[in-house]
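lol ok so funny story. i was supposed to be doing the assay writeup but got distracted and ended up predicting the structure for this chain instead. priorities right. anyway since i did it might as well share w the group, maybe its usefull for someone
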Amino acid sequence: MGRRRGIMSDRFKEELAKDLGFYDVVQKEGWGGIKSRDAGNMVKRAVELAQQSLADQNRS
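and the output, tada:
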């Protein structure tokens, strides 16, 4: 079974990595070089942003 293509765009992932402070690791080692905790925090932040976006849409 092959790897599934990610849902988040590379640009969005880069922005999250910059916001969370580990983009330098991504630049040096690629996405495989980040810690699992950082990956989890990135997903958590993406979910928070999605929920905030949905809440904002519902208010409009």
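The longest helix spans residues 36-59. The chain has a mean pLDDT of 91.
back to the writeup now i swear
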